[in-house]
Amino acid sequence: MPGTRFGRGRAAPALSFFLVAAILVPTALPALEFGTRASTMPDLSGLAWLEGDLFLAVHDAKTPGEADLPRASLLELPEDLDGIRWQPLELAFPGEKSNDFESVARIPGTPLVLLVESTEEQEEKPFSRRIFLAEFAEMRLAIRETVEWPVPTSNVEATAVAAVAGRLLFLFAERNGGSPNTEIRWAEMELDPVRFGPFRGVTFTSPGPVGPGARPVSAMDVDSRGNIYVASAFDPGDDNGPFRSCVYRAGVVRVPGEADSGKAVLLKERAKKVAELDGLKVESVALRQLPAAPAELFVGMDDENYGGTLRPVSLEE
Known about the structure:
Blueprint: E1 46-51, E2 54-58, E3 72-76, E4 85-88, E5 101-106, E6 112-117, E7 130-137, E8 140-148, E9 156-164, E10 167-174, E11 181-190, E12 195-196, E13 200-205, E14 214-222, E15 227-234, E16 244-253, E17 265-278, E18 282-288, E19 296-302, E20 308-313
């Protein structure tokens, strides 16, 4: 929202450093006590552009250990050295609080989004199979409807909604850790109430990262021309990293025809790399499309102990 700025203020320096000279007798320096976190913004497990410089993020907080952490936030792109501004959102859940949001998908041309749980069933996550339809208005997010995942899934990290010839297509991909392949699946979607048609799928093969900690699809979004962008990430299983990620233009969503056997999602024979991010774990991507301007791609990170952040990625050929 142009002109919208969250509260500002720059704190005074927390530390002063003094040079201590010890010529004859060694003197132990006191331990440094840091009192300010480098960033308070949580991980960005899902990201969607709303308007102007404003984005919606979801966070993969879990219960019960992370019950007090935010599930969704508003982010505003930086204008100066104050950096990215973020503001947690209060969400009124119809039932149990979200457990492991891994993606958010904007419904094109509307103020509506899908807030999507991962569906990973574990003892510490007794419920994580819900999709929430929510509406953004007046800087607030309100849940309008809740549905269960319509098909069996496991650990979904990426979802998107595409508008094709007046229809909505819902796309998703499972993380499928340790494999270079996963399926991108899709179905026609209707609103009021939310419901899905039959699902079809096509295998996506990530060019990298590869290895036991690789996740072929950790995020996904679709631009107004139908181009599908996905992130592939590597997580070594250590919350201190190091991580690696790549972003690819994987294919296109279009009106299915006879030449492609009626498939609405067509993937490239080899995905085109648009970005490589060493040391960072990309878990969300979002396309910003301002009027009369080319699409811009933003990536959101979940770097575990190193926190979350947001960055633009060049789409220049």
